[in-house]
């Protein structure tokens, strides 16, 4: 058995077999307790160092309304970070006040901007041209712009969102111009946002990025002649996807951030901008796994395990080589292991959940769990090969609640009836 926050749930073979029988496979299984633990741990860590702070949950990680509602119920001050009209809808449906949310788009259409403006959410813009488009709709009192500090961070190339190869943000060399244009157009209050990468476990990385953000903040404030209301360091807070990885030290991260704020703004924290963060992965990734069934075993040039969950259910491994542990459900003989390529039923050779993965011998019909799928799992799933998307359930002790029905093949073609 792997060392994981959900190890106790994984050991309940009969319980998981009942979920599979009732809801089918593949099914996303989430732990309510772990969701509550994660938001409590994060809110406690940031509040120890910052009196003025705001947590915006990154809806893109998992937009299930019941997931958002669970986080909100545990931490009432939660806001949402939304990057599309659909994510604004999900936040609203989950019961959040739009004034507690922020909209961060990129290359937005006029329709996107109109919906964001009408929603009442704060607007964080990715480019000066975004502001010029927004001006044709209206001028909000408050705006922030997204900084590209010229460098980024992340577990691998596909999730590095800062630096000269990034499509996101305004270069630090030209960002002051955006604030000048916005102020001359009637915007009265400002913030600054930066999200430079994802899935990082080293607290020092965030110190380096925060220093870059505050350097730009000082330049902006000096030019505007006024203080910024909020500074968002984004997120990118990682989780251990592998047994040997250590969790991110959140207390150390915010202590480091506090020292950096002191260096720039002085000891009196009442004059500091509100520190904002936009966590997604660290709140939901390790709360969920995909319960999936072995559909075939194949001995070829390699040994293959075929699952009913492939790249259409979990896109991350095929998209950018992300790693997810796979746990066999039921009796495990650690002395009887085989090295497998774990794949799905999709007609693409990139359809791999894992390659060269050592695990106990698997047989057709057995269950296993693809771990840490609570973030960027269902939200990135798709219908390639005309496969309906999975169901989702929320586990609260012994109670299992269906929080999203499984799609049917017929539902995939509703839009063709024109």
Describe the fold and architecture.
With 418 residues, the protein is of the alpha/beta class. It folds into 2 domains: 154 residues, Lyase, Ornithine Decarboxylase, Chain A, domain 1 (Beta Barrel); 253 residues, Alanine racemase (TIM Barrel, Alpha-Beta Barrel), CATH 3.20.20. Helices cover 31% and strands 24% of the residues. The chain is built from 13 helices and 20 strands. The strands form 3 sheets. Strands 1, 13, 14, 15, 16, 17, 18, 19 and 20 form a 9-stranded mixed sheet that branches. Strand 19 and strand 20 form a beta hairpin. Helix 3 packs across helix 4, helix 8 packs across helix 9 and helix 9 packs parallel to helix 10. The chain is globular and about 70 Å long. It starts with 6 loop residues before the first helix and ends in a 6-residue tail after the last helix. The model has no long low-confidence stretch (mean pLDDT 94).
Short description:
With 418 residues, the protein is α/β, with parallel strands linked by helices. The chain has 13 helices and 20 strands.
List keywords for this structure.
alpha/beta; 418 residues; 20 strands; 8-stranded parallel beta barrel; 2 domains; 9-stranded mixed β-sheet; Lyase, Ornithine Decarboxylase, Chain A, domain 1; TIM Barrel
SS-based class: alpha/beta
- Give the overall shape, derived from the CA principal axes: globular
The largest pleated sheet is described as:
9 strands, mixed
Strand content: 15-25%
Total domain count: 2
By CATH, the superfamily of the largest domain comes out as Alanine racemase
Gap between N and C termini, in Å? 51 Å
The helix tally amounts to 13
Number of strands: 20
Instruction: Determine Rg (CA atoms, Å).
Output: 22 Å
What is the CATH C level class of the largest domain, in words? Alpha Beta
Assigned CATH architecture of the largest domain: Alpha-Beta Barrel
Q: Name the average pLDDT.
A: 94
> Which fold name is given in CATH as the topology of the largest domain?
TIM Barrel
- Percent helix among the residues? 25-40%
Unreliable stretches (pLDDT < 50, length at least 5) are none
